[in-house]
Amino acid sequence: MNDYNIKAITDVYKNAHLALQSISDLLPAVEDDGLRCELKEEYEGYEKIIGEISTFMAQNGIEPKDVNPFKKAMLWSSIKMKTLMNNSKNQVSEMMIKGTVMGISELTAMKNESERLEEGVLEYVDKLLSLEEDYEQRLKKYL
Question: Which CATH class is domain 3-142?
């Protein structure tokens, strides 16, 4: 596997990992039962795809790199500050939608370079992109 594809699958892995981290950071502040249930389902979906991507990476001799600890800390503090000031279901769903849209944008840009991606990598780009597009639509009902 060439460097471009290694970077691409690593970016897909990090994208899903950041989403998982965001949900983990947000859940303690969520009071709305419906939104809490939605986020738990999304967490499970991200966890499942991370497991699949990890297996693919291991089969291809790629070491998954964790998200930068500084980036994780910045994400955590940003979420804590925003939910401290307002933890309404509207605020929480808006935060999740913004993060999801960022992920969708990144994945769409990768997909637009699909002629450079190997089939296995493209499969996970498509899979995560589809998952995030679905989550974006589902979260809108909590705005």
Answer: mainly alpha
